[in-house]
Design goal:
With 654 residues, the chain is an alpha/beta fold. The strands form seven sheets. Strands 23-24-22-21-16-17-18-25 form an eight-stranded mixed β-sheet. A seven-stranded mixed β-sheet has the order 5-6-4-7-8-3-15, sandwiched between helices. The longest helix has 18 residues. Bound molecules: zinc ion. Zinc ion binds next to loops.
């Protein structure tokens, strides 16, 4: 062992027993299971769940692994594996330890039930951890002192608990149930892991969960950076070593057998199930009674390189030991989910220990969409496009920039992307805003030889300092129908809501002419854009078109988000998510351009908007445009600030 430091606390305390035991050896020697928390009370036997041995031993202080990730299915002893580690630390390698549950209530429940049962049943722990009842025991529900260390229980929904102390040992349980953000302090997992940094390479972190939705699942993310270990077992018939999978024969998705299920009924009465060996020259059925021997001879093998300090273990309930979750139960449960995606998701997550991805949440294929572009070039308005709107999104990263898209709209809201620009510059400087205005004032050639200019533009007001810059921009250009907007992610919000007056400037002074702030239903807009992206390429209502020559980033950003089902306060809710690494400004810009169109519609007769605009475009009245404003069939403006109707939005070239 290269680093003798881990034992210094224990030796200093002068009572440390044999320090060379591993976690599994400790559990086999000391751990007792009580009847309150276990169906099989008595001595813990690692041989009962042999796959738990290596992950537990990776948590021993004698092992160099820093982070252990368990993405395991139901009834595989995932929780007890963590509890054994708690017992080992308290008895054998004391130090500051934090165990995090999804909520404070769950942490209390863990303490009251499983932990108190473990302490009560296991003499080595009982003599070290005083009962919470005695007044000066140093122990409460959420804090257990023992010689040389302390165990603090915290909930991922409370930042205070996560920040409470530096921890050499950190146990993050069921991380997929953690909130995305805790008390506005960010990701609870990062917050807790920060507490371990002072211990450097002596720290140990255990992260466990059944997974949830693909790309949002925390445990999947942790597993992805690990060496992705699978538990290989030998076929009792041919000896071929393989890991048990639900479908497919190998990692080759193009193999014609990739969609075949591996678990099959062995009789018509469905009382027995067998597992088909993957070996080409075997294919024999492995029966449930073979499991015990198979598991004992099993071995974890890395299937990826990983980051060298994280060991990841994935294990489905197919490995659940004989007498726990049977293959018969698993196959019956699978059949019961037929046709019910919600139930199937639970099955995939909790039994297969895999993330879930359903058809409606599938990320749109950027390349497939990109292949549909064409028929015109960037900067041209194709036939059918009669009114232009723009969406403007501002970003502070990379030195600051404004991203603009311009979309042409026609009958039935069929639309054509006309332009996409990225203007680099500092939002606090007038120069950036001059360039944005110039971009919005550009004349675009139309198919019939005229030109069109952006009628209305929606600008995201973002947050912080940007907000006031956007307000000022909108206020100074209200005649150009530049709207300051604010995205609302609450489900079911109108695409464009009623504006509210903002009349406080950045120095908190009231200003004379306030600016309207328009709320935008971001979720509503994204859902509409996505539904339209799925319409296909044939011309028709709602169909979106794109020109040749768009930057490939556009397609990536457009498809960066998708909807997933998440539990919010215990209720499933659809939310938009994106991968950490992805930018999504183009999708935001498309939503903003859509909202700007909605604004245009409030200023005209909705039913005849496109006819009016088409008639104007067709008419050769370039120099009479301004004075002709009255001839337009106009609806009353939606708010006082809309002011005088201004036709700078479109113009026929001379
Ligand atoms: Zn075989």
């Amino acid at each position: 062992m290269s680093n003798p430091a881990p034992f210094s606390e224990g030796w200093a305390a002068g009572w440390m027993p044999d320090p060379l035991l591993t976690v599994s050896q400790w559990a086999d020697q000391h751990r007792k299971l009580g009847s309150k928390s276990s169906a099989e009370p008595g001595d813990w036997r690692t041989d009962r769940a042999p796959y738990a041995r290596e992950p537990m031993d990776s948590l021993s202080v004698t092992d160099p692994t820093e982070v252990v990730v368990l993405m395991w299915g139901a009834q595989t002893s995932k929780t007890e594996t963590g509890n054994n580690w708690i017992g080992y630390v308290a008895h054998h390698a004391p130090g500051p330890m934090m165990a995090v549950q999804p909520t404070v209530d769950m942490a209390k429940r863990l303490s009251k039930q499983r932990l108190s049962d473990m302490i009560e049943q296991t003499p080595a722990l009982k003599e070290r951890i005083a009962e919470a009842r005695s007044r000066d025991s140093g122990n409460t529900l959420l804090s257990k002192e023992f010689p040389g260390g302390v165990l603090v229980l915290a909930g991922a929904n409370s930042a205070g608990g996560l920040r409470s102390m530096p921890a050499r040992y950190l146990f993050l349980d069921e991380v997929d149930a953690y909130p995305l953000d805790v008390d506005d302090e960010g990701d609870p997992v990062s917050l807790a892991i920060k507490r371990t940094t002072t211990f450097g390479r002596r720290r140990k972190v255990l992260i466990t969960s059944t997974p949830t939705v693909k790309d949002v699942s925390r445990i999947e993310k942790e597993f992805e950076r690990s060496d992705k270990r699978r538990f290989f077992v030998a076929c009792p018939h041919c000896g071929h070593r393989q890991w048990l999978r639900w479908r497919g024969y190998n990692d080759d998705a193009s193999d014609p057998r990739a969609r075949e299920y591996r678990l099959v009924w062995l009789d018509e009465g469905k009382t027995a199930a067998g597992y088909k060996c993957e070996a080409d020259d075997c294919g024999a059925l492995i029966e449930e009674h073979h499991k015990t021997k198979m598991l004992l001879g099993g071995q974890w093998q890395p299937t990826a390189v990983g980051d060298s300090k994280t060991r990841g273990y994935q294990l489905s309930s197919l490995y659940s030991p004989l007498g726990w979750k049977s293959w018969v139960e698993i196959l019956s449960e699978f059949e019961a989910c037929a046709g019910d995606p919600a139930q199937l998701k639970v099955f995939v997550n909790t039994i297969l220990a895999e993330t879930w991805e359903d058809a409606s949440t599938v990320r749109l294929d950027a390349e497939g969409l990109a292949a549909r572009a064409g028929g015109y070039n960037v900067g041209e308005v194709p036939a059918g496009g009669v009114v232009l709107t723009a969406g403007v999104d501002l970003q502070r990263r990379n030195g600051g920039y404004a991203q603009i898209i311009v979309r042409a709209w026609g009958e039935g809201d069929e639309s054509w992307l006309v332009d996409r620009k990225i203007i680099h510059g500092d939002q606090t400087q007038p120069d950036l805003w001059r360039q944005v205005l110039a971009a919005l004032d550009q004349d675009y050639p139309t198919a019939n030889g005229g030109t069109l200019r952006v009628y209305a533009a929606a600008v995201d007001s973002g947050d912080g300092e940007t907000t006031h810059q956007v307000y000022a921009f909108a206020r100074n250009n209200r005649a150009r129908h530049i709207l300051a907007t604010k995205g609302m992610s609450t489900a079911g919000k109108a695409l464009l809501g009623k504006p509210t007056k903002q009349d406080i400037n950045i120095r908190k002074q009231t200003i004379k002419r306030g600016v309207d702030l328009w709320p935008i239903g971001s979720d509503t807009g994204k859902a509409l854009v996505h539904a339209r992206l799925r319409l296909g390429a044939e011309a028709g209502p709602g169909v979106m078109h794109w020109p040749l020559g768009l930057d490939s980033d556009y397609w990536k950003q457009l498809t960066s988000e998708r909807q997933v089902v998440k539990l919010v306060n215990g209720f499933p809710k659809r939310v938009w998510v994106k991968k950490d690494s992805d930018y999504n400004e183009d999708l935001d810009c498309e939503v903003l351009a859509l909202a700007a169109l909605e604004y245009v519609k409030t200023r005209h007769n909705r039913a005849t908007l496109y006819q009016q605009m088409a008639a104007r475009l067709a008419a050769d009245r370039s120099d009479a445009v301004e004075s002709d404003a009255d001839a337009v069939d106009e609806a009353p403006p939606p708010s006082p600030v809309a002011g005088r109707f201004n036709l700078s939005g479109w113009r026929r070239s001379a």
